[in-house]
Design a protein that fits this description.
The chain is an alpha/beta fold. Helices cover about 30% and strands about 25% of the residues. The protein is built from four helices and five strands, in the order E-H-E-H-E-H-E-E-H. A five-stranded mixed β-sheet has the order 1-3-2-4-5.
Amino acid sequence: MTATAAHLREVTDGTFAEEVLRSDVPVLVDFTADWCPPCRMVAPVLARIAEQRRDTLKVVSLDVDRYPRTQAAYGVLSMPTLVLFRDGGPARSVVGAQPERRLVEQLGLDEPR
């Protein structure tokens, strides 16, 4: 495990509400799957985002094959889907692997709250 990967946590159907919905900080959820090549491509980007914003943003992953209940609850059909949760609900989402700068822009991570 790299140092940046340590900032990424896995959530489950059972821990999603506590880790994401009740978080005091915004949470970026990576809906991912082991068989998904674009998911593997975006993983290092998410690790960098997690490291750079560790004091203001939590970045977690949810394996859709192992935890399908949460995937279904949010209508996630494609992997990777990245959903930014703020104040207990989804605020923005991006589908597919994107370069870091584009992800940051599309998710509004640099916008003031």
